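Deviation from plan, reported transparently: zinc ion complex.
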Amino acid sequence: MLITNATVVTWGEPNQVLTDQAIYIDGGKIAAVGTSASLGAQYSDIERIDAKGQMVMPGNICAHTHFYGAYARGMPIPGDAPANFPQILERLWWPLDKALDKDTVRASALVSLVDAVKHGTTTLIDHHASPNFIDGSLDVIAEAVNQSGLRAVLCYEVTDRDGDAKMEAGVSENVRFIQSKRIARIGATFGLHASLTLNDKALKACVDAVPKGHGFHVHVAEHEADEEDSLRRSGRRVVQRFDEFGMWRDKTIAAHCVHIDEAERQMLQAKNTWITHQPRSNMNNAVGAMAFDRMIAQNMRICIGNDGFSNNMWADWKDAYLLHKVVSRDPRKANGGDIIRAGVYNNARLAEQFFEKTRLGEISVGAAADIIFVDYHPFTPLHEGNLPWHILFGFESSMVTTTIVEGQLLMRDRQLLTLNEPEIAREAFALAPKVWERYNANINAL
Ligand SMILES: [Zn+2]
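Because the crystal trials were delayed, the predicted structure below was used instead.
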């Protein structure tokens, strides 16, 4: 496949914006990048896609999401509105995840994947929970990812909040999936919920079971309740508690880290842990804001996820850009360049941990052909130096017209090619009343 007439954003280091470019794709990888004239002459007899001057750039990456949350869309929570994050867990997420079965796990994944293709998010790191359908749940999601053509990293969130048997089933599901034979586009890691729903026995079971060379994907200090609980249980804060179990490994992801203190930051920095920031979720749950600038200045590996919000990653980039300014009353915070450092470069390096020998998030020879077209018409000069602000103030996810992963077209000119959106929505919709009914039964049983 040859993409021609592209305004290429390479997201290389340094980034380059190049006009009138062509990209030759072969075997799922970018095989050549050059001018439309030169590559057009060289590859004259292959399928061509005319980008018509659109911005052509690497697909976006989501560092932390939850496909399983899809059925929360528009769902009423009975009684008084939850007043804090622990109540949101108890009255929204835990009764909802228990309401999922095989069909609704599949439907949740498919609707999320449709959304990702449409919004140009080509790699997603998911964190799954369905306590009444644990065994094989990751295979059901993997099948949906396979069908979509997207790239994803999957895990199951271990917790002891539903007893030992389900905790052990969660451990087994992670191990089984990590060791299973998967297509190259699907990676695996080992999921845990959060310190506040993991007793020492559960943590030990996870650390004992994780296959060699793998890390963990866990929520850390999303709300101060997690730190308070950890101090009560262990006399240690969350990061120290997890450290004592040996959880800070090369590939471990710590989601949120809103309430960690300086000693915890230093430990995560020393351990080179990947930290994901989900500003839309943090604002929605009113949990506060991570120390973004301090952590970037400390060279910590901050990435950006969406925590189950729409798979429009520019929305989280934009909200990160705004959130830290308003909470600190300082317009210098969360500089556009730092947002790109986190959401583009760190996300790409994180995702690469799960796909051996695959360069992601870059338009360069040898990198995976995970590419999007953006129909953006700048009316002021656009170049490498000011691109972050064109994106933060000008890009909309509705401008994504074409999505390609591993050289396969998943959407062309806004037409989905691998997933049938009306059918997927219809099937998910048909299952929704039962999910909400089971959710209500679970909440009434509290
Ligand atoms: Zn999360």
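The pocket of zinc ion is lined by residues 64, 66, 127, 219, 255, 307 (CB under 6 Å). We consider this an acceptable substitute for the interim report.
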